Amino acid sequence: MPRLPASFLLACAAAIAVCSAGSLPVVASPAVAAHAPPSHRHPSAEPRLAELMAEPDVADERPIVSGLLDALRAAAPEIDPGVLALALEARSCALNSGTAVGTRLAVIDYSLPSTRKRMWVFDVDQPGLLYAEHVAHGQGSGENMSNRFSNVDGSHQTSLGLFRTAETYVGGNGYSLRMDGLEPGVNDNARDRLIVIHGAPYVNPEQAQRQGRLGRSYGCPALRPQVAREVIDTIKNDQLVFAYYPDDPWLKGSRFFGCGGRTAGQILADARNGAASHDAVASAGNSGGAAATTL
């Protein structure tokens, strides 16, 4: 009988050792495993998935989030990379806590003026940008710039934080989308306050340029009527909406930051510094290419 190569024998021995130890199949992330068809799941994947959600592996999650950040930023280069990184961190923490969420993520940056597009809707399963839109803030939150936020009914102020979308209905503002705030004391009164996504004629970018600000709501993130139904149908039923403003108490106190081992401030700084370095390298490369072409 011919002798087998030593490398082959070593590989076989390693494979036998792994199988005999009862190792589990690789699960790319809780989100992927949770949405896989039942026929495609390994029999032992369900207990392991629950374990991963309860005790997230920071070393495994960070590369996934980082790669997704790069892909989504490439699709929406105008978004603040720090805000996008925080939104992805919040989504990751929600998944790890066992919150059932879909594959769509809406990010609103209320630190921007209302005259600018400041709502982005992403697909995180097949990374890409679906919408970039103007969005209103509440009358009590400010004029063109919003700087006051509340969870109190009657304040007419916008709420910050992470929301999960729910059911649609037709009300006084037409086709609308209910949301449930996931952060106690920050936005958990959203349903009782009737903070919903709906279309409104006062969300008119052209009029906003003339009057210096977008029209304002009673606290709802209202959209242009022309796109409201389409956007609502894209993000209804257990998708996430992340509303940002550099509010220090919220950034330091939210349970949706820090599950990856970094504070909100560190996440913001790392993403912004990384984006600046990437852009500088890309700019230098483009300049070098142009110089070489000229020569």
Helix/strand-derived category reads alpha+beta
How widely separated are the two ends? 66 Å
What fold name stands as the CATH topology?
L,D-transpeptidase catalytic domain-like
Number of strands: 7
For CATH, the homologous superfamily is named as: L,D-transpeptidase catalytic domain-like
Query: Which descriptor suits the 3D outline?
Result: globular
H and E string: HHHHHEEEEEEHHEHH
Mean of residue pLDDT values:
83
**Can you summarize the main beta sheet?**
7 strands, mixed
Description:
- The structure is a single chain.
- The protein is of the alpha+beta class.
- It has one domain: L,D-transpeptidase catalytic domain-like, CATH 2.40.440.10.
- It is 41% helix and 15% strand.
- The chain is built from nine helices and seven strands.
- Strands 3-2-1-7-4-5-6 form a seven-stranded mixed beta sheet, sandwiched between helices.
- The N and C termini lie far apart (66 Å).
- 36% of the residues are buried.
- About 19% of the residues have low confidence.
